[in-house]
Design brief:
CATH architecture of the largest domain: 3-Layer(aba) Sandwich
Strand content: 25-35%
Mean pLDDT: 94
Distance between the termini: 31 Å
CATH topology of the largest domain: Rossmann fold
Largest sheet: 9 strands, mixed
Number of strands: 21
Strand order of the largest sheet: 4-3-5-6-7-8-9-14-13
Number of domains: 2
Bound molecules: adenosine-5'-diphosphate, zinc ion
Structural class: alpha/beta
Radius of gyration: 23 Å
Number of helices: 11
């Protein structure tokens, strides 16, 4: 089933024309409402009249997460405060979080694109669907929630945690679909097995998995252990939240809702646009957003774009799975973690050398983070009490900065391997093929 064939199956010419018109309008809008963009465009000698077709997008400035942080909290907002009806924030980055305001129309677009995704997965009004992304400032929970309601299926706002109770609900309410991170899906499978419940005793048949990178191997594992079919869903809070792109029944790349989010692939070094099919950094322009529209937002996610017809009938561009990042961001239990955050905490405490290593792993399907740090010689002692206190101080501080718990290991001075070139601070043992 296709929710909105008018948009999802548009001819390429019509789509490009629509994108061009929307881009023109968008550029006028941000030029007159966001000083940040007006200044950038003036510095580049570009005026809104220079933007006529979608190809003119290359004349426009890029936007980065740093720009959002520098203009914290509402500097890039285009709509007046009275028009903003909801605010979300992106998790765990250094310094200020990223704040995103939505107008009523933005929320309607978000529900629409989420409904397109769910329909592509085969979800219908007959389904009972559990949203097990976190509810709150994170976009996952509420984003998926309103998509399910808009479709007309029954939403169970289970959120995360309380997994045993959740499994009972899945059984008792005959829940047929679930949206969660692939890690949580595996954890759910494991808990199911622990409780001795057979997958045949539950009615789950479809899963919308995203918010973190995952692999085909993980898909197979989740599918066989939960007895459902798993689909990829991609999104990011700066652009909207979940629902930017979605897999169809073909599962050969994710269709981008490109009437709302215009994709480009660029070379992260030269910032030049790359031809279709080449791997590079994914960039999005929000063609219809009112609250915080963004021009050429650099996602730092690496992937390729695929054009050409898809047997499902949709004509939209597809993106491959995310194969990596052009920055060093890690996603641990769904939370964005930058090694630089750990570094800043270590540097602010005089007990430690600036020598540290993050070891990320997946144990029993849950991501783990170990932080090894060298203690300065003057602070290193065999007094267990003082060492434990030092460890606790660092753990607490890391928890408050990262929003996730890290297992701190205090190391002897000089014990962490020094690197000759670029410092290596991360060992990610989660195998992502
Ligand atoms: P947070 O609130 O945790 O910061 P964001 O919306 O900012 O959440 O996270 C968006 C990022 O999550 C994307 O840029 C991408 O790196 C990752 N992501 C989201 N969905 C997927 C997916 N399906 N596959 C791979 N990575 C994903
Ligand atoms: Zn398709």
């Amino acid at each position: 089933m296709i929710w909105n064939p008018n948009k999802e199956c548009m001819s390429r010419e019509q789509m490009r024309e629509l994108q061009g018109k929307r881009l023109q309008k968008l550029v006028q809008y941000v030029y007159h409402n966001v000083p940040f963009y007006r200044n950038k465009m003036q510095a580049m000698n570009v005026s809104p009249e220079d933007i006529v077709t979608i190809d003119d997008i290359v004349k426009l400035p890029f936007t980065t997460k740093q720009d959002l942080r520098d203009n914290y909290p509402y500097g890039l907002q285009a709509a007046p405060a009275s028009e903003i009806v909801r605010v979300h924030a992106s998790s765990g980055t250094t310094g200020n979080p990223t704040i995103v305001g939505y107008t009523r129309k933005d929320l309607a677009v978000w529900s629409e694109v989420m409904t397109r995704c769910l329909t592509a997965y085969g979800v219908t009004r007959e389904d009972t669907f559990s949203v097990s992304y976190g509810y709150g400032l994170f976009t996952g929970g509420l984003g998926a929630h309103y998509g399910v309601e808009n479709l007309g299926a029954t939403v169970i706002p289970a959120s995360t945690g309380n997994t045993e109770k959740h499994i009972h609900l899945i059984k008792d309410l005959n829940i047929t679909g679930i949206a969660c991170t692939p890690s949580y899906a595996l954890y759910l499978a494991e808990t199911l097995e622990k409780l001795g419940i057979d997958k045949k005793d539950i009615g789950l048949r479809v899963g919308a998995f995203g918010a973190e990178p995952w692999t085909e191997d993980m898909r197979k594992e989740i599918e066989s252990r939960l007895g459902l079919k798993g689909y990829n869903i991609y999104g990011l809070s700066e652009i909207m939240g979940p629902g930017v792109s979605y897999e169809c029944q073909e599962q050969n790349g994710s269709h981008i809702n490109e009437d709302h989010f215009y994709p480009e692939i660029i070379d992260p070094e030269t910032l030049e646009q790359l031809p279709d099919g080449q791997q590079g950094e994914l960039v999005f322009t929000t063609l219809t957003k009112e609250g915080m529209p963004l021009l050429r937002y650099r996602t730092k996610d690496l992937c390729t774009l695929m054009t050409g017809e898809c047997p499902c009938g949709r004509t939209s561009v597809r993106m491959s799975r995310i194969v990596g990042r052009s920055d060093d961001m890690l996603i641990i239990r769904g939370i964005n973690v930058f090694p630089s955050q750990v570094e800043s905490v270590i540097l602010e405490m005089q007990e430690f050398e600036p020598q540290y290593m993050l070891i990320v792993d997946r144990v029993n399907n849950l991501d783990t983070l170990q932080v090894q740090v060298e203690v300065r010689r003057d602070f290193f002692s065999d007094d267990i009490g003082s060492m434990l206190a030092m460890k606790k101080k660092l753990s607490d501080r890391l928890k408050s900065i990262l929003s996730i718990a890290a297992d701190v290991r205090l190391m002897e001075p000089g014990s962490i391997e020094r690197s000759q070139g670029k410092g290596k601070h991360v060992i990610d043992k989660r195998i992502l093929k």
